[in-house]
Amino acid sequence: MKEILRRSITGVIYVVLLMGAVFLSSDAFDFLFMTFGLACLYEFKKNVRLKGYYIFVAYLALWWAFIYLVHDTTIITILMLLTITVDLALLVFLFSKKAKQFSEFQKFIIAVFYIGGGCIFLTMIPYKQNDFAKFLIMGIFILIWVNDTFAYLVGRSIGRTKLYSAVSPKKTIEGSLGGLIFALVAAYILSEYETNLKTFEWLILAVVIVVAGSLGDLLESKFKRIAGVKDSGAILPGHGGIWDRLDSLVFAAPFAYLVLNIFSYVS
Predict the structure, then answer these.
(1) What is the CA angle 61-126-30, rounded to 5?
(2) pLDDT by residue (tens digit) across 235-249?
(3) Helix (H, G, I), strand (E, B) or coil at 99
């Protein structure tokens, strides 16, 4: 009971902080996720034993460049493709049964594009023609939260078939399907309020976010399993670290950004 209360209090503070930043201003949102990105990098660096602090310099330089300086769509597309390529390579690592030892350079590349690129594209999602679409980004957060919540509830109540027990023994296929179904319901409801996207676009976005987010969750679990830790950090009582909270969003962000740009291109 005490643990549930602690998790609930931390969760409420996290949500209030997030919503406050989104609805306060675009600069507040940018600064919050720049800070979250640094925290994720620190936890990732500690878990994979990446030496030195140059990764933080590289991340901040890349973040400032692409959020405030670079507006060329070709360069942004290149960063997106590099980020997605690294993410796809990490999926090979996720499902490989062979032990993998990353070199220092590989750890650096993974940190820059998987963590750094994910946070950058998460921050770029709400911007459309210089407008800050606060309800769009909140909708994406809601889809992740609905999926996580109902995947847990459905999995705990009727889950029998393990999803990927070698990495995350508690996750089930039934729970994952339950999370997806409720996320689709949430996407349909969101389409009634956030009309920048059509209903079918919200549904497609929900599928992309849920699938990519679930893979991101499993990927972080594998990194933690190799490191021999339960949580990526301890900054959030009852929830672990910032990376634990953002693993789904960080991995799903470049895919969501790609899908949203496809919607803009074909509409």
Answers:
(1) 40
(2) 655 556 888 889 999
(3) coil
